[in-house]
Amino acid sequence: MGARFGRDARGPLAGLLVAALVSLACAGGGLAEPEAERPGANPPAASPGPSTTRADSTTSVAEFEQDVADAQAVAERYWAAQFKESGQRFQPIRRIIPYQRDGEVSCGGQALPRNNAVYCSQGDFIAYDVTWSVAAFRQVGDAFVFYLLGHEYAHAIQVRLGINYSFTIQQELQADCMAGAYLGDSVRSEALTLAEGDLDEFREGVAAVGDDPDQPWFAEGAHGTAEQRTDMFFRGYEGSLKECDLG
């Protein structure tokens, strides 16, 4: 997957429910923090390093870091264009924080565990376990990085739009749809170029973070089954933000 920076992926955020941005300085406001995004019950154990070569040669930490930077840049240009179309000012998240140890980063006074990627509304940042994320990058492919960051960035957009559902799963499935919309629209506008196999990597990556099929819909921290998450991601990917129930 490659990023280009010559065009905007433009399109209106129709029917926004909230005109004003949620204050980013509010320590206790915003969404309940999403649970960890975990690829299966036994996440890859590889640590950052030169080994574990994939057929597509996506191996190095430097490649991973470049993909994170590209994904952030494309996401922020995309959402800036959407907010501009709706007459609002877009404010990017404050930062993205990689970490390696339990408790190295905290959100609202709560230490973040390993094998985790999360948007923290209190600090307005995305944090991810770099060891787990690089292992997933090597196992699934570089498209997974764009999905993962797109999903967490979607949570930041939900905060900015004042979206807060009763059940976690509603928040999470909408974020999957929004991540799909950002990626699909960016491909259609040629801000992103798909390589062979990237769509399969999206499908594999989204399915890998699905809940157990027996997980109740209303369970605290539920994100959706592999089928539900894949359906919502590709609904957004193919149909853009109008499929994501933004209002």
UniProtKB/TrEMBL annotation:
Disordered: annotated segments: 33-60
Keyword Transmembrane: yes
GO CC term (a single one): membrane
Keywords tagged on the record: Membrane, Transmembrane, Transmembrane helix
InterPro entries: Uncharacterised_pept_Zn_put
Pfam families referenced in this protein's UniProt entry, alphabetically: Zn_peptidase (PF04228)
Subcellular location as annotated: Membrane
Membrane topology: Single-pass membrane protein
Protein name: Metalloprotease
Species for this entry: Micromonospora arida
